[in-house]
Write a structure and sequence with these properties.
Blueprint lengths: L1 E6 L9 H41 L7 H13 L1 H20 L9 H21 L1 H5 L10 H4 L7 H45 L11 H14 L4 E6 L2 E8 H21 L8 H20 L2 H13 L5 H11 L3 H14 L4 H14 L2 H17 L3 H13 L7 H13 L3 H14 L4 H16 L4 H12 L9 H13 L8
Antiparallel strand pairs: 1-2, 2-3
Helix pairs in contact: 1-2, 1-3, 1-4, 1-7, 2-3, 7-8, 7-10, 7-11, 8-9, 8-10, 9-10, 12-13, 12-14, 13-14, 14-15, 15-16, 17-18, 18-19, 19-20, 19-21, 20-21
Length: about 500
């Protein structure tokens, strides 16, 4: 299964506080309501089932308008099943009469009393439960539920997947539209998404909830405004990633939603995923984003953001950001090369330059930039970030780093107890620095890991011998080499015949 990991425009001019706030709000609400929603949904479904069964047994029983909505919804959505249920109870009564027994039936007065009790219980749940008041019920929606349903989720996976997609699509749009237009757009997308779901399934009793309709609106807007942006996809269970343009992957996602939406409509199935909410949200998002762009609202918001951040942001970063937004990576690269030449320690400059080079598909430029980023992050003690950049560097065919930087990465791997990778990197470092003291030190480190942690004394012995035979001056390392060779010879892990 493919899953979006990131895209090339993740870094904006300001921290995406609105997106962060939305994620935090959804998470807090989930923690406060999840258990209650599950319990209340079960209770409501039981009462609805009791109302349905009683109405099937006694078609003339008196019901409240709310209970009538439940029965009407089933009659409309599942007419054949409801007809069979009514017929079953009627056949049971007829069979009892033919056998000379009195049917086990309530009198009309008793049936009305039982239904009145169920109706009162159902009305109380509607009035006081979180589930009925704040989830979206197409059969009888509360006006505010068009908004509140966007902040409720039905489980951890539901929440995590939605928040991850929000994090991928939201920040770039928040950066483009600002902190007023963006949240308004998000809420309107959510409202219209549930409205579409309600139109398609007007009699559905299945409660709908989740931020996916609003997030689908952001995805539609992303497609309309940044169609050429490369989205990095990962393959589950396999460490493999590749890039696909938004104008390819997002329409494919929409096509899947339409396919399953049509199938769910033809089967009168409202359970599970609210595909039509996704479709409605996505359509609004794409059209709304184009409207914001061509009416000048986006331009005005962008100018307001520039006025706030311009005092602290280097003009070349601002210029490069604009160029990237206009799908002009060459212009961004030109501005950023000027910046990093003048300020070689500008982490923001190098990060944005990497984005521009990736958009331009300049692999050689990316390798050069990644090497600079690795150096800067090692210097700032961000070893994890440096290692992440190094993995990208290697994937692009990068081979050699400055000895000190490379050595720090190897030490980081040792601290993480990633023994296999650490040994491999030490050997790679040694191979790139043959005949130099740094190469000998790397061989000794790789041999030590193989001996003490990988339990490969034969490999360790070979590396110790290679270090001992190096022409590079290494007298200070000789005691460690000789001690290592003795331990290899005495190791109980040494294979027979070696």
């Amino acid at each position: 299964m493919f899953f979006p990991v990131s895209h090339e425009n993740m870094k904006g001019r300001r921290l995406p506080w609105v997106t962060i706030g939305l994620i935090a709000l959804n998470t807090v609400i989930f923690l406060l309501t999840n258990g209650t929603l599950e319990r209340e949904d079960i209770q409501i479904h039981r009462v609805e089932a009791d109302i349905l069964v009683l109405s099937a047994q006694y078609p003339d029983v008196r019901m409240s308008p709310e209970a009538k909505d439940v029965v009407t919804a089933i009659e409309v959505e599942y007419p054949e099943e409801y007809r069979k249920l009514v017929k079953k109870y009627q056949d049971d009564a007829d069979e009892a009469l033919r056998a000379g027994r009195d049917p086990e039936r309530l009198s009309a007065l008793e049936a009305d009393a039982r239904m009145a009790q169920l109706c009162a219980q159902f009305k109380d749940m509607q009035d006081h439960s979180i589930a009925w008041n704040y989830e979206f019920h197409a059969v009888d929606p509360r006006p505010w539920s068009y908004i509140t349903a966007n902040f409720l989720h039905g489980g951890w996976l539901h929440l995590i997947f939605n928040m991850w997609f929000l994090w991928l699509a939201g920040p770039v749009l928040e950066d483009a539209w600002g902190r007023i237009v963006y949240p308004v757009f998000y809420l309107v997308a959510g409202v219209l998404a549930w409205a579409v779901h309600g139109v398609v399934f007007p009699h559905s009793l299945v409660p709908a909830l989740g931020a996916s309709g609003a997030i689908a609106g952001l995805m539609g807007a992303f497609l309309a405004r940044f169609p050429k942006t490369k989205i990095r996809l990962g393959l589950f269970y396999v460490v493999y990633r590749f890039n696909v343009a938004a104008y390819i992957i997002l329409p494919m996602w929409l096509a899947v939603q339409v396919l399953y939406g049509v199938l769910s409509r033809s089967l009168n199935s409202t359970a599970g995923v609210a595909y039509w909410a996704h479709i409605g949200g996505f359509a609004f998002g794409a059209l709304g984003a184009l409207l914001l762009h061509y009416t000048g609202v986006e331009h005005s918001a962008n100018q307001a953001i520039e006025a706030k951040v311009g005092w602290s942001a280097d003009p070349r970063i601002v210029r490069a950001t604009d160029s990237l937004g206009e799908n002009n990576p060459a212009g961004a690269i030109y501005a950023l090369r000027e910046l990093v030449k003048e300020k070689p320690d500008s982490l923001d400059g190098w990060e944005l330059l990497l984005t521009a080079q990736h958009q331009k598909q300049d692999a050689e430029g990316e390798k050069e930039t990644l090497a600079a980023l690795i150096r800067l992050k090692v210097a700032s003690a961000d070893a994890e970030g440096a290692w992440s950049n190094y993995v990208e560097f290697r994937n692009l065919g990068g081979e050699k780093l400055p000895r000190g930087v490379w050595l720090e990465l190897c030490r980081h791997l040792e601290c993480q107890k990633s023994w296999d990778i650490a040994a491999e990197e030490y050997e790679r470092l040694a191979e790139a620095n043959v005949g130099e003291r740094a190469g000998v030190a790397a061989l000794v480190a790789a041999a030590r890991i193989n001996l003490e942690h990988r339990f490969k004394p034969d490999r360790a012995e070979m590396l110790f011998k290679e270090a001992a035979e190096s022409p590079a001056p290494h007298s200070d390392l000789d005691p460690a080499i000789q001690d290592g060779l003795k331990k290899c010879a005495a190791s109980v892990y040494k294979p027979y015949g070696s």
